[in-house]
Every structure is written in C-alpha cells, then in structure tokens.
Specification:
CATH architecture: 2-Layer Sandwich
Shape: elongated
Number of strands: 6
Helix content: 25-40%
CATH class: Alpha Beta
Distance between the termini: 42 Å
CATH topology: Double Stranded RNA Binding Domain
Largest sheet: 6 strands, mixed
Number of domains: 1
Oligomer: single chain
Strand content: 35-45%
Order of helices and strands: HEEHHEEEEHH
Low-confidence stretches: 3-17
Length: 186
C-alpha cells in the first residue's frame, strides 16, 4: 500500500513539474519603482515578437489585466512603457526507469550462485515538447531605459485555443507578480 501511495505522489509531481513556470527577474537597483503608476505598451518592441498576432493580443490583454489588478493605470502619457518578446525551442526528455525485482538466496553481498532471475524491467520514456520563454520589459519612458525585466520559461501546451490562452495568462501572471521588485522582497 505504501508503494502504491508513493507511485501516486511521484506521478502527481511529474504532472505538476510539466506545468511549472520558472521565473527570473532583473532590474536596475538605482530606480525608485514607486514613481511608476501608469503604463502603455511599446508597439515597436512588441511588433518584433516572433509569435502570431492573435497570441500577441493574448499576451497584451494578460499583461494589461495583471497590471490593472496591481493598481497601475493605462495612460496616453505613461510613466513606463511595457514591451515583450518571446523565444522557443524544442526539448526532449529521456528518462530510464530500471525496476529490478530480483530475489536471492545465499550469504552476504556480491555474486550469489543461487540468485533467482526475478523480473528485470527497463523502461525508457522519451517525451518531446516545446519550451517557451516570455520576456516582459518595463522601460522608463522619460529616460528611455530598461528598468525591469521578467523572464518566464516553461513547457508550452498548444492543444487548443482555450488551453493556449490559459497558459499565456499563467505565464504573464507568474512574471508580473514579481513586479515591482520591492514587493517581492517582503
């Protein structure tokens, strides 16, 4: 029974590890982020993103929604500009699970002439997936300088439109939750 529970826990961890998004941030430590209250999108940067126009709209909507939730205001005369770009690559995972359920009779460690063969089961699991990276940049509009960058990396699930949209929202939420940097230190 304990072995069965262990298998369930391992399987659950494998499922959640596929959906995990790794987020890192970098920022200018000399910037007072409390002075940023308004934002607008930086169209020239976003136009260069190597994704479909539909996905660009999805990312823009998700970023806007998350920033509005944090109390920022979209403006024609913003304090900061928001841009993003993407990268993707194909990844292959190879896992070998060896299950030796041999039974032996005899004394001590090492070679045993009375060893019974038992079951020897080698399983190799190969999976291929697309790993995507979303970079979200916040630019000081006045100085025209990058002040904060959030980078989210994780497996992309593009089975259908709803799942794609949910995954984009998940990426954006995880990244934007780290802004401003003072908030994440608390």
């Amino acid at each position: 029974m304990k072995y069965f529970k262990f298998i369930i826990v391992v399987f659950a961890l494998m499922l959640t590890s596929c959906s995990a998004i790794k987020v890192t941030t970098d920022y200018d430590t000399q910037v007072d982020f409390s002075r940023f209250n308004t934002f607008a999108f930086y169209k020239p940067g976003i136009d260069k993103a190597d994704i479909s126009n539909l996905d660009k709209k999805r990312v823009l909507r998700a970023i806007e929604a998350e920033l509005l939730l944090q109390g920022f205001v979209k403006s024609d005369n913003p304090d900061m500009l928001v841009s993003f770009f993407t990268k993707s690559r194909e990844r292959v995972n190879v896992n070998q699970n060896q299950n030796n359920m041999g039974f032996g009779f005899g004394w001590g460690m090492g070679w045993n002439p009375w060893m019974m063969g038992g079951m020897n089961n080698n399983n190799v699991n190969v999976s291929q997936f697309t790993e995507g990276t979303l970079f979200v940049d916040f630019i000081d509009r006045e100085k025209k300088e990058l002040v904060w960058q959030g980078i989210g990396t994780g497996a992309l699930k593009i089975e259908d439109r709803e799942k794609k949209e949910a995954r984009i929202k998940e990426f954006v939420k995880e990244i934007i939750s780290r802004f401003p940097p003072e908030k994440s230190k608390k």
